[in-house]
Amino acid sequence: MKIVIIEDEKNTAADLAATITAVNPQSEIVRILSSVADSLKYFETNDSNIDLIFSDIQLSDGLSFEIFRKIETSAPIIFCTAYDEYALNAFRVNGIHYMLKPFSTKTVNEAFQKYKTLFKSNSYPTVDYSKLVRLLEDRVPEVSSLLVFQKDKITPVQINQIALFYIDDEITYICTFDNKTFHVNKTMNEAEAIAGDNFFRANRQFLVNRDAINDASVYFARKLILHLKIKGDFQVVISKEKATLFLNWLTGKK
Predict the structure, then answer these.
(1) What is the total count of domains within the chain?
(2) pTM over 0.70, yes/no
């Protein structure tokens, strides 16, 4: 069985690949893709060889639903998500199978059982991914604070007090507006799912609060570099592909 994983968190992708092959030794992980752009390029020429896709929803350059809006794949898709009950109801209504993060041997095994059921009955659902994108983009986050870890203490920090989420050595941290830094027990994708519309995923490493931005300036090769209100050696760069999306977000334009 040939499997593709779409996941932009390197450690998460590796853990999922290992769990898949442990649960189903006949599995061959043929490719791990980390972005919407890479996935579109890959599936343009490789779809016929794929039996099953495990895909995260939040990627560094957008929702993975955008991939399946633009390409037609015959392979069933199992979405891996940290979304809340609101979003899960949307998946159920549209007949999509999903795995909640963090995944386990049990949930991966359940995903394979679901695949076998669909394969035998040849009853893969037809999904309106455009509708799902609208549902998820329009949702209002219900989380107002995040738990942070420092030595033996666990402390709630208000989301609106967070200037920046960032990754360092595959660990997610926050920097608050008063320049305090904390470790959070979330992947960047999970943080993005709960942070809300006031935060922008600049790239794989940074998720930035609109209120933390002083200004942006043109950078090398039509990129943008952000100048922040907080202290620290944070070089937050927006790719030329995301520049227009970022500027629209910065002005509140949808």
Answers:
(1) 2
(2) no
